[in-house]
Amino acid sequence: MKTKYIFVTGGVLSSLGKGVAAASIGNILESYGYHITIVKLDPYLNVDPGTMSPLQHGEVFVTDDGAETDLDLGHYERFTKTITSQKNNWTAGKIYYSVIEKERRGDYLGKTVQVIPHVTDEIKSAITSLDGKYDVIIIEIGGTVGDIESLPFLEAIRQIGLSSEDNDSLFIHLTLVPFIKTAGELKTKPTQHSVKALREIGIQPDILLCRAEIPLPEEIKEKIALFTNVKYEDVVSANDVDTIYKIPLVFKEEGMGDLLLKKLDLKMKKDDSSSWKKWVDKIYSLENEVTISIVGKYVSLSDSYKSLFEALFHGGVENNIKVKFDLIESDTLLDDDLEKRFENSDGILVPGGFGIRGIEGMIKAVEHARIKNIPYFGICLGMQTASVEFVRNVAGLKNAHSAEFDKSTDQRIFLKLKELIGIEKMGHNMRLGQFSCSLKEGTLCRDIYKDEKIMERHRHRYEFNPEFEEVLESNGMVISGKNKERNLVEMIELKGHPWFIGCQFHPELKSRPMNPHPLFISFIGAAKKFKGLSL
Ligand code: GLN
């Protein structure tokens, strides 16, 4: 199979939604019957985003094979059928690391190692390593054209474009056409400059995708075309929409689908956006609303919980209900009147997180949900805080804690994986990627999944200490899911509570619009019931 490439670059400024644009292009090509995947090239020097604070970088998206990646891979998986892997995200750090390793091994045979050709060749082979498996690979280049860091990446894609046959590669550039209120005008100059910067390094865009508050009028498109050396019909308007899931449909309406087929010389094998459109239409028909309180430590940046918000939203659509997020900085709960704070909550969720800040606030939130019978969903750190709360307040072991937060306590409910099973290194010393979980018969979890064995994605360092399993179970908490291979606790649920589940993995990473995750469907259903709405 000959693979074609689409390169997506960005200009003017960041946060224009390049990831969603790339994902939407993938969605359109799939609707025409093509097998695609999407790769993100990130120009920063971290080897992966795993070491960055979510407040800096947003969520770390984890793949089945345990790669810690950029959150755009979440968009790719939610908008298309692609299952991403280690090969779908390359940072400058990962590329340079590999070049330097090769240099140390002597692979370059006495040559001077340089950005061109050695770094650019490494980038090219990262891209081409997926060749033959897909009809089209979409490659999104992080950052903005004009950044020093992105130069080797742009040079590499320029070379691929040059060596490709006609219609085998396509350059799409996303820019901003700002509307200046005082002048009452859309301004094309930033787009002109951004394309100029791209052309200076040898890349002539084939299609311009122009973000604007309103659809571009004809004369603006003409002006952009004239100054950027792009044909009028190849300037596509990407105006703001109220839900990102509408974007593939809007792009198609704007003629993007036809342009992709024409420029890549592909036939429309089928044209099937109907189920996607039906799902998007459903968003506009949702009645009522439930409020989910998210008690976390990275709530000041909504990108930190990207997949979580999307999964809750998917669960809401499935339940025909809007989901309102009540974001709570867990620290603030310590001196709060919880009764009042959670007065309007129909569900409480503690998401994943690292480090001690905010932990006691989360534990208070769990206690409140447990006592007041409010649906509770604990994800990773949220399962850990739920276990600690239970062992402290129900089993009466007041010093209970995770070894992550209190190394000296003799009641360590969570232990570092390596201490537990004697493995020094496992991934990046974390349990990363997909692992199996066997569900106990007769439990709520088993009922929700309607399956005995499930696979879910992990990203954590600490595991439930088996010495305390008996303490949990004899006090009324059920261990409903376990990884049998390593005898690790994966899921817990509280007997007698309407909906109280903790899981050690991240189910939000596997929720898709038309295939919402069962735990999120069930949780939103429980919130609906809590509010007194019929299911
Ligand atoms: N900090 C915890 C651990 O490392 C939980 C991690 C998470 O929530 N992803 O085990």
Describe the structure.
- This protein has two domains: 4-279, Rossmann fold; 286-531, 3-Layer(aba) Sandwich (Rossmann fold).
- Helix 1 (18-31) crosses helix 9 (247-253).
- Strands 13-12-14-15-23-22-21-18-19 form a nine-stranded mixed beta sheet, sandwiched between helices. Strands 5-2-6-1-7-10-11 form a seven-stranded parallel beta sheet, sandwiched between helices. Strands 16-17-20 form a three-stranded mixed beta sheet.
- It has 19 helices and 23 strands.
- The protein is 35% helix and 22% strand.
- Glutamine is lined by residues 352-354, 380-381, 384, 404, 459-462.
- Residues 352-354, 380-381, 384, 404, 459-462 line the site of glutamine.
Short structural summary:
This protein is 35% helix and 22% strand.
Keywords:
alpha/beta, Rossmann fold, 9-stranded mixed sheet, 23 strands, 7-stranded parallel sheet, 535 residues
Q: Based on DSSP secondary structure assignment, what is the total number of beta strands?
A: 23
The name of the CATH architecture of the largest domain is 3-Layer(aba) Sandwich
Low confidence ranges: none
State the CATH class of the largest domain: Alpha Beta
In DSSP terms, counting alpha (H) and pi (I) runs of 4 or more, how many helices?
A: 19
- What is the CA–CA distance across the termini? 48 Å
What structural class is derived from the secondary structure elements?
alpha/beta
Main β-sheet description: 9 strands, mixed
Query: What Rg do the Cα atoms give?
Result: 25 Å
Amount of helix: 25-40%
